[in-house]
Design brief:
mainly beta, seven-stranded mixed sheet, three-stranded antiparallel sheet
Length: 208
């Protein structure tokens, strides 16, 4: 196994949704062969999302519900349940606990049908020495090259070989170094990583 060199440093990245200040670790990944594009964060339900609750062998209890502004849902037998900030797996387990009072051995699946709370959280941004800074809607399969081309490509001042992708993983920010020159000039697609929702691509200017 290749050694992954990581550098940890503290960054203040602003306020979270509750308004509290928090510190985030930045983890630098220097071995692209370990496929940093596969690092994903477990999705947490937000206000405005829509959920599909499937109760096995109980179609009357299987419903689609929105997450209300108070962070709760309402469903038959379940009543009101706070779901904002939880994962679908946690919500499914909570619903199973409630339904055990009414049916034997309930099996529940919670499926996200729309992500109304992630309009900006999931966007991909390209900044720095590009023709224009852009904020793009994330699409499945979107690559770094796709996003850079949407930004008009590097400008004449770009140090494309020092491109960085910043990715949030929980309270950590992962820094992924990318040699954009090798993609554009030599057709080396190894560095053309698949982007995750919320990624920020930064192309610095050359130092003269």
């Amino acid at each position: 196994m290749r050694l992954i060199f990581t550098t940890l440093m503290l960054l203040a990245l602003g306020a979270c949704a509750s308004g509290d200040q928090y510190a985030n670790r930045v983890v630098q990944i220097s071995d692209l062969d370990d496929r940093p594009s596969q690092i994903v964060e477990t999705y947490r339900i937000g206000i405005g999302d829509n959920l599909r609750i499937d109760v096995w062998k109980n179609p009357d209890l299987s419903v689609s519900v929105p997450v209300r502004p108070d962070g709760k849902i309402s469903a038959p037998l379940i009543g009101e349940l706070l779901v904002a900030g939880s994962t679908p797996e946690i919500v499914a387990a909570d619903i199973e606990t409630i339904l055990k009072r009414f049916i034997k051995s309930p099996q529940v699946a919670v499926i996200m049908t729309s992500l109304g709370s992630t309009r900006y959280l999931t966007r991909v941004r390209v900044t720095g020495a590009v023709s224009r800074n852009v904020s793009l809607e994330h699409q499945q399969g979107m690559t770094l090259l796709d996003a850079v081309l949407e930004a008009g490509g590097p400008n004449e001042f770009a140090a494309a070989n020092k491109t960085r992708v910043f990715r949030r993983i929980g309270d950590e920010t992962v820094l992924i170094p990318v040699d954009l020159d090798s993609i554009l000039e030599r057709g080396n697609l190894t560095d053309n990583i698949i982007l995750s929702p919320g990624d920020t691509i930064t192309i610095p200017e050359r130092t003269f």
